[in-house]
From TrEMBL:
Matching InterPro entries: AN11006-like (IPR038883)
Native source organism of the sequence: Capronia coronata CBS 617.96
Designated name of the protein: F-box domain-containing protein
Amino acid sequence: MKIKDKPSEPTSNSRFLELPVEVRQSILTSVLLPLDRYIYLSPKQSWVELDRAKTLPCPPILLVCRQIHAEAVRLMYLRATVVIYAQPGFLALPSRLPHRKLVRRLDIGIPMAEQNSGLSLGRPKAKIYLPIAPDRLLPQLQSVFPQARDISLTLCAIPPRAVPHMSSLSGATVCDLRALLLHSLLSDKITRIRYQLTDKLSYELFDLGQHGSQELLKERVGRATDLPNLREVEFYFTTPLSKPAHNRPIMWTARTAPASSMTILYRSLRQERGRMRSLGEKLPVVFPQVESLKLCRMLYWRGSITYELIDMGEPEAKAVPKLLKRRSIGW
């Protein structure tokens, strides 16, 4: 969010500035709505974005005068979520931010490695890419945002074939996810985690749900199950219903699609639920502390990435028409 014009000086007859501070804050809060906005301190990264709110324009009240600007910006940074991405130099700009010490909410996008692992290897650990090791990174993060107490992590799996083409991963360090999550400077501040998984990692978790122990599952999610203040966990799976190759034969211009398309979706949905059911039963057990646990399906559609909420209890007769509608041209 950039402000092109400089705030003007307050005029001597400004009645607003004569109001009590509490009243001014109440008025500013109403004018600045929504306060739960996202502030991006670097360009958005396509590998992590799913459903971020659109970037909002600069509120005009910030340009009224310097004093009102200062009071309004303070309110904004106290309530907004600052979005950053774990890549080389990602703390350089925030360290120069005048209001960084007011920030309480952070959303950090972190690339997750898709390594070769399996049930036969014992304890498959989740791996992530960081610009430097957690022991060096987290003290820097704390010094830049000393008041951050509500931290969300978006862990986005990166296929190995894509890594050489991503400049943001140049020189990155591969480390255990649990080393980051359970670090003393971070573990009690994490309130939300989103796992965006490739098809390979999705089916690894499905297999762990069917054949693995709870301990193996905990390792695969980076021991996030041990975070004391974690309130929300979201899993975004990639399944055959996510992929464009599967969607193409069931896209139709007419409202009513041939029965064969419905048959394809019924079969795919049953297969997906069969693989996912055991995992869906285990996750609430290994995450007993969370208030919200969501299972979602990634949906690749017309060059964009969205998602669908997975309701395992929804009757197929209701679920399949919804799937077909979302995959029909003109939706």
